[in-house]
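Incident log, structure service

09:12 report received: a user says their structure output differs between two submissions of the same chain.
09:20 pulled the input from the user's history:
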Amino acid sequence: MLLPLLASALLVGPQLQHPTIQPRTFVSPSGEWSLSVDPSAPTGAGPAHVAVSHAGQPAWEADLPFTFWEAQITDAGFAVGYAFAAGWQDMQGEGDFVVGILAPDGRSLREEHVALSWSRFLHCPPNPNPRGLFVQPELDRFVVRVDDEDVNRQDEEWWSYRISTGEPLERARPKSGLGATDSLRMTLDAQPVAGTPLTLSVWHEYDWQHNERGQSSRFVLLDEQWKPVWSLSVPKPDDRRPGHPGDEPSIQATVGDRRFALWNMHERVTCEVAPDAHAVGGWAVHEVSREAWTPVVEAPALPLELALRSLPTVPLDAVSPPVGPVHDVLAFDFDGQGHILLARGKQDAPQVDLLRIGLDGEILGQAAFPDPTAGLEGRRAWHALRGDRWLFCFSPFGEDVKSRAWLVESATGAAQELEAFAGPFVDTACATPDGGVVLLGGYHRKSTIDDSLLCLDAEGQRRWEIVQRAYSGKPSELMACQDVAVDARGSILVLDSTRDAVLVFSAAGEYQRTVGLPEAWATQQIYPVALRVLPDGDWLVHDFVAHTWHRMSPEGADRGGFVGRREDGAIEDWQAVHVDAAGTLWGTDRSRIFAFDASGVAYTRLGAPADAEVLNEVANVHVDALGRIAVSDRRTHAVHLFDGDGRRTLVLQPDPGDFEASYFALEPVISDSRGRTAIPVDSFHGRYLTFGADGRRGGIADLGGSFVSFVPGSSDRWAASRLPVSTGRVRRLTGEGRGLVSVDRRPDHSFFPDVKALACVQDGSVWVLSGTDNRVSSADLELDLFSPTGEPLRSLRLSAAPSGYWDRIAVTPRWLLVSSFEDTALLVSLEQGTVARVRCGGVTKQGCGFGFSPDGKELWCVLPDPLELHRFAMPQ
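09:34 re-ran on a clean worker, output below:
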């Protein structure tokens, strides 16, 4: 009930992804009228076919020039709603926002167009941004709730219209009349109370200046002038139960004439309103009933787990990299003598090695640090202080948790925990000139993060801390902080990607000034993410969009820049970069440490050079359509192919510059029946790096989609896009890319909500996996089979499947396998239509890859660490 009921039913897919609008029928409160909307596009762009029925008989139908994104139909037959002329907009401001009102005979009473404009705030949708709508028949009024353009105000504007005529009425901001607006945050819901001119709303309430009051929700009953006539504040429960409607106080205003219900803690309270000349606003509210909520939890009947017979495990014969002092780099920096300080170890390993290394690679000192947080889940970070000590931070996951910190002697590994630290999670940190450290991070709260800028002295004691809990527009406030640096005088510099500026604080934490990034950079879209200080006092700022390091003066003057590249031409990552005393920029890819020259080229100084013949670090494992085991290397981006006996048969080696240095593929490679292979370069836009059957590089090609599967024995392929497109969601293409077949909808006429994978069958038909699950549930997960010419043949619902990131499928004549990078897969019998779970034990957090052997008689699961093939006999 926190989102408008109609909107939650209409949208398919989480809002962080591109939502899909589906065919939908809206019914009036009495059930006498219905409005059916069939979109022409899954984004809601363009026209829609609508049909209206009254008392079970057709009233009218037409093709509207827009598609209702959210709508209602009244008991008098008026249809109202809003639309996006160019489709739902994520963060772009394109097309118009449309408000429509249709008469019972189909006449258009209003079609109001308002041009969408880009939001002034990062990662926010364009304006107008609707939050929902409601209809008040007693007032002949239709209301669209629209977000405030200033997201910091957390307000709404309610646009009202006369239903019978389409006439626009006043626009109001109901929050302004409620009082104590500093503690009211946002509207959670608003609904009319049937049989009255009243509106029941619920608001999130939080007094950040008096945090001990905690968070609550305020229910407010508004009259026809949007003035409050009744109010009730309800604290949020501390013992929230999953699936309980009282987890968040919510409302139901349609339980009957003059009655409404609200979820108050763990109770459902039904109230009735009645005219009362002596009551505030002329209305009195009386409680009618109160009942405890006893949820009926029906655990889904998961598919049975099928125990397959294990076959001998096969280790993969990979070539290992040479071992030297520089590998598994967790962090590095420089001491006062110009030596490299190195923290080395596997992620989540029980021990970390601390080394001091000369620039010639000689180990000058080494110590071991046993991690006191080994086995615990959280983020670990190392930060060099003076030349002989580190600060080690551990930040557990979850809300209202505090980080721990240790001072660690680099020479001995001896550690002392800072008992009073209880600090924020740490995003980034840097040392101060006197051996202290400044930490930038935050504290996780419910649905938010309080930003933190924390300074410790050389002994790890708190000097001061700035915690940002809310925003009032002051220039000193922490907003979208990306990085922190300290100059030679001890001034603290905070990089702000919203303001495109650097905030300067004194060593004591006092705000001093704001330095805007040079206007010359604003000629392009920029996203500043890293800040470093050079020995001469200039600043280096990294732009994530253009991969450019920009140099600027502390006063904001532009002094040029460069794009950091490796010797082979690949663009280098911006993370884990430090500046030595001579002003040289250094970086690491965890396997080596390199230095940038004056032109921005990174030359290896320490560590083994990249070698495509060596499997340095496994990025992804996969069993392709030919039953070959593909292992991609995170460092070189090469793909090593192995057969079922563990022998390496081929290495697919990209050219320098094919990938950014920081890129690694989490998506499977694809192969055709002749052994040609394609590696995703930018699968979001259908771009792949191709190789011939002999492993020879063929170049970058557009294969037509985010997911591709070749038709066996043919040059044709099926391709599907991640997002809705005008040319079809799933298409069959020729070898030259010419379209043969286009499929937009599932067999039940609904649009594909989110295509996750596809796999071709021998006869050219294709299985498509789609659904809206994103680890939360599998309620809409479905497999659909289409003929070689695109006709729907068969559907299998996987709603009983356990939650998971299902995004890979493989098929044989008898079986279909649905998997992810986790240790459990779904095995579907195509003969019987049954679904069973199969599991491969021993999977690490790096994930695994499922598939079939070339003859289809074995199920394979490849593990990355140790790199080996687990084999299971398929049922006969």
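09:41 both user submissions now match this output. Likely a transient worker issue. Closing.
09:42 reviewer note: The radius of gyration is 30 Å. The CA atoms of residues 15 and 711 lie 34 Å apart.
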